Amino acid sequence: MKKSLLIFTALCTSFLLLGTSAFAAKKSKKKSKIKAQVVTNELPSGDVVLLDGFEEGNFWLSVGDAWDQWGSHNLSLDAETTEDWATEGTTSAKWTFDIATAETSKQASFYTNSLIETDWTDVKYLVVDVYNPNDFTMYLKGNVQDGIAWAWSSTDVVEIPAGSIVHNVAFDFTKNGISDAEQIACCIIDVCDENPGGSFYVDNVRIIR
Fold first, then answer.
1. What is the phi/psi pair of residue 129, to 5°?
2. Non-local CB neighbours of 33 within 8 Å, separated by 6+ positions
């Protein structure tokens, strides 16, 4: 009886180890599918505040048709979180946008009204990590809206090469400044210009003073 019990225990242990190894191999195989050129930009100097690592939930939305009454239709389709890729923790945002032709707004916006830091006084940069798995260059722009006059402040467009992972993508607010920076209500990242539509990943959202 004791011998049978020992054999049974050994078999269970073997199956458990095999299952664990298979899961680890499957997870490793999943991560290995990401093949991209990796670019690491120098992080601008200053005091860094992490706004979102997408580990505590999803606080970003796609505009879609929600703002149609105030202008042209926005081409953002979906904003979700995923474990397919990440640079801060294990989760990132995955944002999907529609085809942008010359006849459209050529703008897909992803935004949050749930900023953990609303006082952007002296903020110079909004910084993110981006993975562009598409076969076309993406053009991104950073924007914020204050909660006093509801004015928009925007940066110049930043290029993200096709099939690349770019660390420390910096949206520079030093050129145009930030209106009523002491009370920021909304942060938006736009996909700009004509494109065939697709998805991309964002993580490690920071501001630098």
1. -105, 135
2. none
End-to-end Cα separation, the chain, in angstroms: 71
Q: From CA 172, how far away is CA 155, in angstroms rounded?
A: 6
Q: Which two tokens stand for residue 102?
A: 């010359």
Q: In which region does residue 197 sit, left (phi positive, over 0), alpha (psi from -120 to 50) or beta (all else)?
A: left
Q: pTM for the complete prediction?
A: 0.84
Q: What percent of the chain has pLDDT over 90?
A: 79
180-192: pLDDT as tens digits? 999 999 999 999 9
Q: Whole-angstrom Cα distance, residue 129 to residue 31?
A: 17
Query: In this structure, are residues 129 and 88 in contact, taking their beta carbons and an 8 Å threshold?
Result: yes
Q: Which residues pair with 48 in a beta bridge?
A: 208
Q: Which two tokens stand for residue 84?
A: 């397919």
Whole-number Å distance between alpha carbons of 88 and 168: 12
Distance CA 69, CA 30 (A): 42
- The closest alpha carbon to 126, from 106, 88, 96, 156, belongs to 156
Q: Are 204 and 50 in contact (CB under 8 A)?
A: yes
**Which two three-digit tokens encode residue 75?**
């081409």
Q: How far is CA 41 from CA 32, 76, 128, 169, in A?
A: 23, 27, 11, 7
